[in-house]
Amino acid sequence: MKLWKHTLLTLIGLLTIGTAQAQPVEMDRVAVVVNDGVILQSDVDAAMLTVQANAKQNGRSLPAQDVLREQVVEKLIIDTLQQQEADRIGVRIDDERLNQAINDIARDNKQTPEQLRAAVAEQGLTYAEFREQIRKEMSASEARNALVRRRINILPAEVDTLAEILAQETNATVQYKISHIQLRFNDGQDKADVEAQAKKLVQELNDGADFSKMASTYSKGPKALEGGDWGWMRKEEMPTIFADQIKMQNKGTIIGPFRSGVGFHILKIDDVKGLETVAVTEVNARHILIKPTIILSDEGAQKQLNDFIRRINNGEATFAELARQYSQDPGSAAQNGELGYQTPDLYVPEFKHQVETLPVGQISKPFKTVHGWHIVEVMDRREVDRTDSALKNKAYRILFNRKFNEEASAWLQELRAGAFVEVLKDNEDDN
Fold it and tell me: Which residues form a coiled coil (predicted)?
């Protein structure tokens, strides 16, 4: 959920706090000077009425009138300072984004747009005033988000530590099917030679060598004759040296080599159960990009790409040859047009649609994106386990939200402390 929605997704009455001229009065005056801006007495009165009405509706008690007024004024000061920051950094909320936000408010309040308008009117606001208040809330929130994000620093070690804690919380029910290779130290043998052999085996396994065959051939461990297969175990059932190495790795992960007192070890996670896994589809595609110019029109770019398709289908040239020679995407052109295995979400919408829907081996018709005109061919698709990455992403989000709330509070305090604020009341000044 967007951060600004925490401010907006409340009862409509709460949204009227800070609305300029929400309740017209015969005579208005400046109640507070905030830097080079002002808060009018009508703003304060409207906010007071709104808070009191909401408290009555929800059965909540309120402090004494003078205390309540002080709190309301402080809220309006903070809102004004944030709006001034939004103006300073040039935040602009266009009508399209505003309309979408208002539609979201109606939906989340289980209202139609017409019902929302009626609710706004019941609060004594015109719909135009309501729209501008939402625009101000959004711009202030966007400014706060942008300025506070700059203050947040999350170290990779922090993410890894929290991800391990999250992993431990689920480990009680998780089972791993593991296989093991042990290379033992022999009398008089140089331990560096054993380590070098272990690293060589890991390289071969990562290149696709059969783990069971390698275990039967090289392992001196207790399960060597079973191809190194230890079967299904929870971490608390494993040898400690195994459990210490397993940190929610994905199915198929090769771990090691790692050392013990008797030699070097290699583990493979054959399978995992009891853990909610996250799988994504990666696509290996290649493309040719032609960019229209003053000389080359859109129609000319399409014609050129259609000619490439004809030449490929007739065997006159290969996709790779044409990509190297003509594609105006230098990075992929040097790789025969190949983009490598990527999740489709990485691409712009038009390109994403093509790589998600094209059958493997089929070349698309020419299509346009913001980058120019393309033809694309999907070379392969594969399912990839991203459970470990998902856990780290979750850890990052938790850390970010924690630090954001801390830094946002500190930022607001600093903003308030550095502002010129003069509250005008009964000819008394209060800075």
Answer: none
**Cα Rg, the chain, nearest whole Å:** 32
Q: Helices 387-417 and 65-88 meet at what angle, rounded to 10?
A: 110
pLDDT at 313: 94
Is this prediction's pTM over 0.85?
Answer: no
Of 135 and 249, more confident: 135
Amino acid letter for position 232? W
CA distances from 415 to 27, 211, 273, 405 (A): 31, 60, 51, 15
What pLDDT was estimated at residue 336? 94
Q: What is the mean pLDDT of the chain?
A: 85
- Does 83 score more than 50 pLDDT? yes
Instruction: Answer yes or no: CATH 1.10.1040.10 is held by domain 280-384.
Output: no
Give the integer Cα–Cα distance in Å for 283 and 299.
Answer: 29
pLDDT tier for residue 275 given thresholds of 50, 70 and 90: low
More confident residue, 124 or 83: 83
Q: How many CA atoms lie within 13 A of 384 on its CB side?
A: 15
Residue range 14-35, pLDDT digits in tens: 443 344 444 444 567 899 999 9
- Per-residue pLDDT, 100: 87
Average pLDDT of 352-360? 93
Q: Which CATH number fits domain 174-273: 3.40.50.10140, 3.40.50.1240, 1.10.10.10, 3.10.50.40?
A: 3.10.50.40
Mapping DSSP onto H, E and C, the string for the chain reads CCCCHHHHCCCHHHHHCCCCCCCCCCCCCEEEEECCEEEEHHHHHHHHHHHHHHHHHHCCCCCCHHHHHHHHHHHHHHHHHHHHHHHHCCCCCCHHHHHHHHHHHHHHCCCCHHHHHHHHHHCCCCHHHHHHHHHHHHHHHHHHHHHHHCCCCCCHHHHHHHHHHHHHHHCCCCEEEEEEEEEECCCCCCHHHHHHHHHHHHHHHHCCCCHHHHHHHHCCCCCHHHCCEEEEECHHHCCHHHHCCCCCCCCCCEEEEEECCCEEEEEEEEEEECCCCCEEEEEEEEEEEECCCCCCCHHHHHHHHHHHHHHHHCCCCCHHHHHHHHCCCHHHHCCCCEEEEECHHHCCHHHHHHHHHCCCCCECCCEEECCEEEEEEEEEEEEEECHHHHHHHHHHHHHHHHHHHHHHHHHHHHHHHCCCEEEEECCEEEC
Token representation of residue 375? 């033809």
